[in-house]
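Task: sequence design from structure.
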């Protein structure tokens, strides 16, 4: 389910910077809302991330509401809400964002290579990138994540991802076809691995979509809704499928997810429909039927209520961004 949600919200990665720094150094990143249009113009929401390849540094939210974390080689730091943040060789050391760095190049491949950042001391190397995704009609993942996710290097999978990143970034000195795409897919893989690790480490009392995947009954209900979204699901039908009474299932789903089951199903159907509307050969009526709406009028009402615009207007608004 994690993979199909990432596909439905169009998760797309890009490695923007390959940074070679020497102490003392500092790199301050502005909030993603202020650079989203420049770095990931096709997306409403942007997640920033950094992966240490060599050396170490400190990372912290710009508002300093949470303690700084120390990153070692192989570690990653992710900012799911797109908050401003800073990284430095000296704990708490701040800088000033350089907005001229943030743009999508038209005549060359990413990443930008930044050399000789900082002073003449101990070296460090890291890559910086972004993950773009949809925020509307519905993105169930982002809401349940912390503002800062520290991902410690561990296990064969993360080691493999790191080594592949090293190889792909090394190609930037002598660019080869497909290098930017490889880095994009590796950053998406890194994020999925981070989500899986986050899910495994959540306390038993946790709530939200990620936590719900671990619950035997609610997780199974989510699997059913995702695998058969157009089916005429009711609370009774879902409860029967997962082996619970209607009332107990309804209470458990709402308690863990924070939203009623039928409300979640409606929002998920609209997200799937939004992806279908990106295809020029799919009509509004076809998109509605594909996700389980019996009438185009009912679909139009539900879509406008959730998104703030009817599906036709949404499609026209999205067309330039999707093409880009």
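Answer:
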């Amino acid at each position: 389910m994690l993979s199909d949600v990432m596909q439905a919200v169009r998760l797309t990665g890009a490695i923007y910077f390959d940074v070679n720094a020497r102490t003392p150094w500092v790199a301050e990143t502005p909030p993603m809302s202020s650079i989203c249009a420049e770095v990931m113009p096709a997306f409403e929401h942007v997640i920033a991330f950094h992966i240490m390849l060599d050396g170490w540094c400190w990372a912290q939210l710009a508002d300093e509401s949470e303690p700084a974390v120390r990153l070692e080689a192989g570690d990653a730091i992710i900012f799911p809400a797109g908050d401003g943040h800073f990284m430095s060789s000296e704990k708490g050391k701040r800088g000033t964002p350089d907005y001229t760095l943030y743009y999508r190049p038209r005549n060359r491949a990413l990443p930008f290579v930044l050399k000789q950042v900082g002073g003449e001391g101990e070296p460090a190397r890291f890559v910086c990138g972004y993950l773009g995704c949809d925020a509307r009609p519905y993105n169930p993942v982002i809401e349940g994540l912390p503002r800062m996710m520290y991902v410690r290097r561990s296990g064969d999978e993360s080691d493999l991802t790191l080594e592949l990143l090293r190889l792909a970034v090394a190609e930037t000195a002598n660019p080869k076809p497909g290098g930017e795409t490889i880095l994009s897919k590796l950053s998406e893989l890194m994020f999925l691995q981070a989500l899986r690790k986050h899910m495994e480490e959540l306390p038993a009392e946790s709530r939200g979509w990620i936590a719900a995947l671990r619950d035997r009954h609610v997780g199974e209900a989510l699997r059913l809704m995702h695998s058969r979204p157009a089916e005429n699901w009711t609370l009774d039908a879902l409860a029967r499928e997962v082996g619970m009474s209607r009332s107990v299932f309804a209470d458990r789903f709402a308690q863990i997810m924070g939203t009623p089951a039928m409300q979640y199903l409606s929002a998920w159907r609209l997200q799937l429909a939004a992806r279908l509307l990106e295809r020029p050969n799919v009509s509004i009526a076809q998109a509605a039927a594909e996700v389980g709406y019996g009438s185009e009028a009912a679909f139009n009402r539900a879509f406008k209520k959730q998104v703030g615009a009817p599906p036709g207007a949404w499609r026209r608004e999205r067309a330039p961004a999707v093409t880009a």
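Residues 32 and 82 are 5 Å apart (CA to CA).
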